[in-house]
């Protein structure tokens, strides 16, 4: 039975979601207080014991369970160990397998993907998929969000990724360029704790690495060692090139920057803080050294001495057993706990995280400059029951920040209708959707896999999922004709395309092998398995979109995301070219090609009489893109809604285009930048 609770005490900021975007904003805001005398926001390090400051009052909503965001050491360890135990017993080790599958806050799961038979949608999972192709990626609604099962790869976007329209006549340019975002990339790399070797990076760009990264710049931690397999492939492809579209492309094999702990880089220097500097026009965030504190790898949220260094557990997706890999809970804990005068962690009671709380719509006070006036929540009572408490929170003097994933943010917005009186009649509108771009331009990297057997053992199945990538095709003139891509080398054998090593064992047992014969057959095959990824950029397409429909509701009566998704010839041709590149590299390396795409695959198509299949990369972006014009974008470059003065919409959904890099680092960078605008708005509210 539904109930109604009284509104909670007024909050300065409400953040929906505890993933990387929401946690970054919470951490950076709680690092600052309001100086009532100076009438400005200042960093905690600048406070004076003789003065009183206004602490920001922040409320965060998390759709997942309470156990996911209780970040005291004991509870955190118990919860995370429960995730690990679930991972061990699940037959299918897919990205969501360790985490709670909640009927009140369901998540898209790759195991639910099925071919679509028009005109009927695939309704098996949380997503309602009308196609014509299934959207192939998942996400998870738990404390910390999808960073719990990301791979952890952290390349930056390239300069031309921000100006596809200008350079290649494709898609739409970002409202910011690479140079604008560069200092925020540095802040994101500090917060995530990126391991890598700047000197070893090589990209197909006109800028030198010194221009691209900055003079003497290094990552916080040393490079994660490249695998033995990587070195064998590097040696075999050294000095070679691939011919595509009548052009030669030299093969560049680059050690991948990664969000996982290695050894702190001495050249990086001390630890740092991200500090707001006030000016007449607003605030600018800068990365400042803490001279008295050396840089240290940040370990597990329950024990800083556990997970200080990657142990090569080979299960980064779906879970790092020791939390050597970054996840957003590490940042969230920095918001919830602050170092007091005695250098001890103390709970920050000015920020509250309310779990089991599904935000499903916003209301607008039309009489007050179209401010967001209410947030509507359904808080479910327990994991087992579907009863919920209806809560309505007043937000007239509050900054509201939607920081959920690129399915959930547009779902909330599309469910938020309001009426205005225009030209003598009532007109129904949708929150933040003047441009009609909310939910549109859904994108992902299409992952085409190629696999084969190396002539000699390369000893797969060790270490992080990928430690090297081929960067040769991340940019080039070909982008006017077909997509760019990045090619990670996979350290985990044929586990993704062929369910190895279990499938190999089954095959050999069916062949009657046993004992030494079985062991020799497994050793001979598994030690030589090689897998290449081709993560292919998808362009924004307004027809690829998230919508809602009252016919499709979850158990709380909230609309499920309805997905329309397909590919264009631009992307199909890129897959054709990527397979040609793979064929040439396999031939040079002497790899016996076992790649096979079947008509029964969920995501498959025929292009130029050849079949191709692809998977999702988990890089769910678009759906509320940023821009410099309210007519064709949802937010400005600071992720602030064009339509509502107290609404920010942050996360991967803001990405104007996708580029070829994993999106977490980039969304972290522009989310950090958005805090400059949020601080200015808070100053205006508080002074």
From TrEMBL:
<dbReference type="Pfam" id="PF05199">
    <property type="entry name" value="GMC_oxred_C"/>
</dbReference>
<comment type="similarity">
    <text>Belongs to the GMC oxidoreductase family.</text>
</comment>
<dbReference type="InterPro" id="IPR007867">
    <property type="entry name" value="GMC_OxRtase_C"/>
</dbReference>
<protein>
    <recommendedName>
        <fullName>Glucose-methanol-choline oxidoreductase C-terminal domain-containing protein</fullName>
    </recommendedName>
</protein>
<keyword id="KW-0285">Flavoprotein</keyword>
<dbReference type="GO" id="GO:0016614">
    <property type="term" value="F:oxidoreductase activity, acting on CH-OH group of donors"/>
</dbReference>
<dbReference type="InterPro" id="IPR036188">
    <property type="entry name" value="FAD/NAD-bd_sf"/>
</dbReference>
<feature type="domain" description="Glucose-methanol-choline oxidoreductase C-terminal">
    <location>
        <begin position="540"/>
        <end position="670"/>
    </location>
</feature>
<keyword id="KW-0560">Oxidoreductase</keyword>
<dbReference type="InterPro" id="IPR051473">
    <property type="entry name" value="P2Ox-like"/>
</dbReference>
<keyword id="KW-0274">FAD</keyword>
